[in-house]
Amino acid sequence: MANPDDLIDDYLTRYASALSRFDAKQSADLWAMPGTIVDDRFSGVVESRDVMAQGLEQSYPLYQQLGLASVDHEVLDQQQLTDLITLVHVRWIFLDASGDELTDSIAYYILRREDGDFRACVCIQTDDVEKLRALAAERGIEFPSPPES
Asked: For 93-108, what is the HEC assignment?
């Protein structure tokens, strides 16, 4: 049986690769359904991978304007909650075409093993919006306003 730490790193590497390629379908395939996303302004349940992919695609124009060329990750901590569920504390590192860091983002994921592979069930973003907003301001790029409720 594979080492769970290796499986988590493999999962995050595949997720980072899909994000680097702006491959919304592949990113969405790494989620369990329904999936839950939470941050300081929003919490919601995504019912299907198609809806997840559509949501991801909406952020790509901003990432491209900001110069995002690739994504890397660093596991800050992980806790095995059950035999199949792991809480993972991740630092996502956003890089430009030269490999220089544009910004980073901290998130927590609840991952569940399904058929020998991990899928994200919950993502809690802690600082992505403020860091992306700061990078946009630094580069003179208009940061999109959140939709009105």
From this structure: EEECCCCCEEEEEEEE
Asked if residue 15 belongs to a domain, the reply is yes
The answer as to whether 54 is a domain residue is yes
Domain that holds residue 30: 4-139
Q: What confidence tens digit (pLDDT) does each residue in 100-144 have?
A: 999 999 999 999 999 889 999 999 999 999 999 999 999 999 988
CATH code assigned at 90:
3.10.450.50
State if pTM tops 0.85.
Answer: yes
Question: Cα–Cα–Cα angle for 61, 10, 60, nearest 5°?
Answer: 5
CA distance 114 to 148: 36
Phi, psi of 71 (to 5 degrees): -130, 140
26 located within any domain = yes
How many domains, in total, are found in the chain?
Answer: 1
C-alpha–C-alpha distance, residues 39 and 112, integer Å: 20
- The Cα–Cα gap between 83 and 69 comes to 36
Pairing of strands 31-38, 101-114: unpaired
Does residue 144 sit within a domain? no
